């Protein structure tokens, strides 16, 4: 078996903010196998974006040196900046409206990405971009090169950004909620396009979202983040059908497609500067025990390739909370 | 784009026409009787009336206005009440000197101000940033007449490396007149010695005049770059693998510069008025000194003409700025539709 494309090991990111030191990620591990599709879900503020920024090598300034390792094709891209995987990791951003520079032509923006990471002459690269535009079904690919971002619709811009992500022939595609800013029909088309491209080109995919419906349609595996730690992970189908961590269970119950009664989770995600001790979910947990560990509970492996960070994962959630 | 430029040009016309009317009205409202000035202290009422008739000052005001408009449109500003020579001729002789000076100052301000602002922004709160901020506050605070004299003292008197005043050495003389711009004419004539000499003469006045502009441009570039650096597309570009230097110097700067270009248009007004003091100190034979002389001698024809010419130059600069902006940011031309 070939080694995984991406391996995040014990990643911890802390930022100094005005409110104190923020623990944004703590001991996060994650593996994207070659050809695998892995989703990362969680509420806003759980550390999804920081995880992506760490992988893409654009963590904000002012942070402490992150601990842990991010191995891309076996090389640590977290500690060794020279081993940077830029170009080999294609990035599809969240907001197609804000992610393109309004004063540069679409073609030139993609050429700029290829400048340092793709072989061939300028003409070769242009040909490649046109091919990619065709692959992402952008209308009139030749003319699109010379158009400015505002001359495209939202869905077209996202196609353009997907083409840009593929420009340097990446091994891994990293997508940050790429459909949130789009309307529902366009969302479907973009997701279908991503699925097709991943399958056709044998790409690996790391997909960040807060939407379980989107997750289920794209990712074979899922990692659930809560307050900067991994709460649960496993094959998407299994986790969605039978969530084990109380957070995942409540989160799924919140999803309008699945909940019989729409529930909320009491309380809010803790501020990154004031993470609770022990299990980070305990202040909001419906099944909190006197026996809960004082240290953050470790991930416990379960059958079927699953893991969960809660010792009481087999307990039922009290009916009182389901009402 | 062609339509956009045409629109901008057409929009400048009413402004210029307004200027023609306004200058005429102002010239009749301000105290000071040009006929009296011209006739001298010992003039008799009969002499005054004769001069009034000669310059058309005795006609009804509306008729005078119409004559004024007609004269402006034909480029005939009449004769100076002071020198008796045609105003158009006098201005044509002096305008190039002022244009040369102001454009040199603008060029200096832009070529130094933009990189300084960019450097400051990418070193946000670092030593370079502090230095540039200090420089830009200083540049706006220092009075140009003081700076001019200091520069003269240091570079002309003490070090004796640059000429004190004038456009060229009297010994060298002016090149044959083609455009009136000495730098251009000397090159046309192939007289590189005159070109070098003219550059040396231009340096101190241009530096003096450019400083406030340089400060403004540096400040606006800095804040524009800082603002652009916060944008999502910059984060995306970094994630996508843009080179650091090209990201700042090309990708970010082009966005930031749209704001700076607007400032350059506005700056031009300040440069022209600043040129009055600078020209006086450096004995620069331009419009500024001419205007001062016209004011002091109530030479209203000359003043009208100077005001109009400056207005036209200002309008041309602003149309150029609009076009430059549309070239930098394609949305500008489309929004204007």
Automatic annotation (TrEMBL), chain A:
* Domain ABC transporter span(s) in chain numbering: 6-252
* Biological process terms in GO annotation: peptide transport; transmembrane transport
Q: Give membrane topology per the record.
A: Peripheral membrane protein
| Cell compartment(s), UniProt | Cell inner membrane
According to the lineage, what is the superkingdom? Bacteria
What are the UniProt keywords, alphabetically?
Answer: ATP-binding, Cell inner membrane, Cell membrane, Membrane, Nucleotide-binding, Translocase, Transport
Q: What PANTHER family does this protein map onto?
A: ATPASE AAA-TYPE CORE DOMAIN-CONTAINING PROTEIN (PTHR43297:SF14), OLIGOPEPTIDE TRANSPORT ATP-BINDING PROTEIN APPD (PTHR43297)
Report what the protein is called: ABC transporter ATP-binding protein
Native source organism of the sequence: Neoroseomonas eburnea
The root-end lineage is: Bacteria, Pseudomonadati, Pseudomonadota, Alphaproteobacteria, Acetobacterales
Automatic annotation (TrEMBL), chain B:
Protein name according to UniProt: ABC transporter permease
Family classification = Belongs to the binding-protein-dependent transport system permease family.
> Keywords of this protein's UniProt record, alphabetized?
Cell membrane, Membrane, Transmembrane, Transmembrane helix, Transport
UniProt xrefs under CDD domains: TM_PBP2 (cd06261)
Membrane topology recorded in Swiss-Prot or TrEMBL: Multi-pass membrane protein
**InterPro entries noted in UniProt:** BPD_transp_1_N, MetI-like, MetI-like_sf
Q: Which GO terms describe its cellular component?
A: plasma membrane
Source organism: Neoroseomonas eburnea
Which regions span the lipid bilayer?
103-122, 134-154, 202-221, 260-282, 302-321
Report the subcellular localization. Cell membrane
Query: What's any GO biological process attached to this entry?
Result: transmembrane transport
Q: Name one Pfam family in it.
A: BPD_transp_1
